[in-house]
Structures are given as C-alpha cells and as structure tokens.
Amino acid sequence: MIELLAPALLAGLAVALVAGPMGSFVVWRRMAFFGDTLAHGALLGAALALALDVNLYVAVVVACLAIAGALAGLQQQRQITGDTLLGIVAHTTLALGVIAISLQKSVQVDLFAYLFGDLLAVNWGDVLALWAGAVLILVLLAWHWRALLSITVNEDLAQVEGVPVTRTRLILMLLLALLIAGAIRTVGVLLITSLLVIPAAGARRLSRTPEQMAALASLLGLASVSLGLAMSWYADTPVGPSIVVAAAVLFGFTLLRRPDA
C-alpha cells in the first residue's frame, strides 16, 4: 500500500503546493478560462507525444508553453474578444487532441486517464520531475511576486510605476502553462483548473493579505490531495475527481465563516 500511494501522494502534493499561489492569481485575475484553454492544449501535447514517440512531459510542456505564448500575442488584437478567443482555442485543441489520440491504432491509449488523471500510475521519476518543476515555479513566482501583484491590482498604475506589464503578464501565463503541463497526471486535463480555483476561492474567504491567501490556498490544496487520495483508495473512486470533490467539500466549510463586515 505504502509503495503504491507514496509516489502518488508526493506527486499530488507537489502540484497542490504550487497551485495555491498560482490559483490565487487565477482567481484575482479571473483567468479560469485561460487555465482551461491551456489544459485542453495539454491533451494535444500528449497526442503529439504519442504520434512522434517522444517524452510525454516534454511534449506537454512544449505544447502548453507554445499555446500560452500564442494566446499572449493574440490577446493584443482587438477584432476578437478575449473570452471568444479562448473558447475557440480551447475547444479546437481539445478536439484535435482527442482525434489525434483516437488515430493511434498501434498504441493502447487510456483516454480516461488523460481526461481525469491517473495519479496512482506515477513513478519516482515523475515525482522527481514534478518537485523540480514545483521548486522552479515557486522560485520564479517569488522573484516576480511584487510585479505580478502590481499588474493584478491595476495594470495602468503598474505601467506608470515602471513595471514591464506585457512581460510580467507573459511570465504569469508561462508559469501557469508549466504548472498545468505538470498537473496533467494529477487530476486530468478536464479538472486541472478546479485544483487552481477551488482552494484559492476558499482561501480568499479566510485571508487578509495576498501572501496569506496564497499560503492558505496551498494548505487547502495539500489537504484536498490527501483526502482525495484516501477517498479513492478506500471507496475505489477515480483519483482526480475524488481530489476535486475533497476540495469542494473543504470550500463548503469555508462558507460557514461569515466574512468580515
């Protein structure tokens, strides 16, 4: 039991730890749909990895980073609104990914695992890669924290204060892409955004400062992964959806606290 659950738990905790502060920015900047778009792009990356016989994580990371960079550029144009653009890219990449995977006749593909996660299938190599990615994201996030907060509060004011708004926005998108690429095995492409949004939304009700919210979101995410993994083990339920349900239950408990007047 321990040999099976230990890699899964450590992998899930790595993702949840980073999802806290990253999810806080997703909630503050209302970027949930952007996260969904990158998650759908991750499935296309996985399909390309199968087709080209390359490393899954490398292909997914490259696909997510490419889509994030493209979206950052496309959102500068004025002909199509941001939410419309995200909707087009999200559903197109998801459809292409599903079609590409279905065409892999010579490879046995568990589409359910890509869509809803397969945390119990991770190995120690995956755990090492996820923790390395988590440390990298946290270091970069801490380095750019003040600039990211400035553009979140008011981009125009941040520009006046000398913050490179466009570059900082791109950095946030790329960090989010890197996290989503790593989290594909945790809750799957269809539920990744929930691990970003739900703990952060709960932490928002309990926090007074941005730093406090980021820390509490990480704690709620860590608890969600632990409880979801336990639920999956004892109730024989899918791991990814179990983690999301655990996060939703914890969020429900935060609703019991009356917000300060």
Automatic annotation (TrEMBL):
<feature type="transmembrane region" description="Helical">
    <location>
        <begin position="56"/>
        <end position="73"/>
    </location>
</feature>
<dbReference type="InterPro" id="IPR037294">
    <property type="entry name" value="ABC_BtuC-like"/>
</dbReference>
<feature type="transmembrane region" description="Helical">
    <location>
        <begin position="85"/>
        <end position="103"/>
    </location>
</feature>
<keyword id="KW-0406">Ion transport</keyword>
<keyword id="KW-0813">Transport</keyword>
<keyword id="KW-0864">Zinc transport</keyword>
<feature type="transmembrane region" description="Helical">
    <location>
        <begin position="213"/>
        <end position="233"/>
    </location>
</feature>
<feature type="transmembrane region" description="Helical">
    <location>
        <begin position="124"/>
        <end position="145"/>
    </location>
</feature>
<keyword id="KW-1003">Cell membrane</keyword>
<keyword id="KW-0472">Membrane</keyword>
<keyword id="KW-0862">Zinc</keyword>
<dbReference type="Pfam" id="PF00950">
    <property type="entry name" value="ABC-3"/>
</dbReference>
<dbReference type="InterPro" id="IPR001626">
    <property type="entry name" value="ABC_TroCD"/>
</dbReference>
<comment type="similarity">
    <text>Belongs to the ABC-3 integral membrane protein family.</text>
</comment>
<comment type="function">
    <text>Involved in the high-affinity zinc uptake transport system.</text>
</comment>
<keyword id="KW-0812">Transmembrane</keyword>
<keyword id="KW-1133">Transmembrane helix</keyword>
<feature type="transmembrane region" description="Helical">
    <location>
        <begin position="239"/>
        <end position="256"/>
    </location>
</feature>
<feature type="transmembrane region" description="Helical">
    <location>
        <begin position="170"/>
        <end position="201"/>
    </location>
</feature>
<protein>
    <recommendedName>
        <fullName>High-affinity zinc uptake system membrane protein ZnuB</fullName>
    </recommendedName>
</protein>
